Amino acid sequence: MKSGLFLLVVLAVLGIALPAVAQTADPPRFLLESIVVEGVQRDAVREIVAAESLLQPGREYSEQELREAVYRVKRLPFVMDAEFSLRKGGERGSYQLVITVEETRLLFYSVDVFGSYFRDDPFRQHEHASWDAGATAGGRWFVGSQGMVFGSVQGVDGAGATAAQAGYTRYNLFGRGGFASLVLGTDVGDNDDRLDVHQGSFTLGVPIVGNHSLRADVDWTRSDENFLGTRFRNDQKSVGLSWIYDTTDDPLFPTSGTRLSGGGNISRLEQEVSDRLFRSELSQDSYVVDFGGSRYWALTHRQSISATLGSSYFWTEPVGDLGIRRVYQWSSVAAVGHSFDLLGFAKAERFGDLRWENDLQVARTQLGGGFLGRSEDSQLALGTGLVYRNAWGVVRASFAVIEILEDGR
Known about the structure:
mainly beta, 409 residues, 2 domains, 4-stranded mixed beta sheet, 15-stranded mixed β-barrel, Ubiquitin-like (UB roll), Porin
């Protein structure tokens, strides 16, 4: 009797719910006749923006798909902001998609000022505060219809220029909105000619479908130091592959959407120490597997919150019979954040974006292997900061209080 009554209730609910679902109208779809890019002067920018949208004239798209296409455009390094609108096309039922872009300047800068107040566990009573600062200045120029060259100089803590890099990026690779980027860098600081550092990286990004993409990275770093007649040389090469899913509405100030990523990296470190009497060499392979994601929700038109989870596993494998033990490290992090737009939309259009950002983060790390045994520690960090962005660059000032929750060393 009870089972029959339960079945009647279920059927009654389904009888009410199914018609309601059936009556739900599908979201409207728009047939694109063409894509028009406005607000820019260079033809190269128009072609890159249209390709990055991943939209094709002659196909139908929903409003959400058009909105996410503009989000992809906003992730381009030379785009400050982008919006879309629809105009009636030449044929009945067709539309022109108009993407209005606000470009960044050809010359750019970034400034970071960050401080921390670190409290060790209460049994040690170790406390200290520190401040650091860094700045970057550079420029970018378009070459041909799909290429961009760029260069920059970095400095830290008022020490002047310490590093420089130059690179080239080719957009709309394979005709599908992919890109390839080559970057070369070197140190230019005053190290009394004792230390030389050279770097190179190659990145290939390919969209898969919708908001999914694959990214491959190849990196190389060489450092060479001579100290009191002894030479220390390090060569590190790495290859990585990652999957990215991104529906966030802004690369710097996201207020809605999801960003997920996962992948792995393999690297080899070759070290050499030599002088006039001896020479020693060591090689070691390292592996990293990681996964993480963030979700953003808009509370009001000026406030948003976020949640982040991430985890990574790192381990090393000695090459050859060197008597070195395997080392591993497992790390995880969880964080919640809050962001507030201090200027509002009208003022942001004239002066730029100014955000107040706060976050609470818990991190845990476990280290083992080698000759030091096993250790575990947990940290709690409370951070706050201001971030300003305009067409020239970004300025960030932040401060964090870090507390040791557990120390198992």
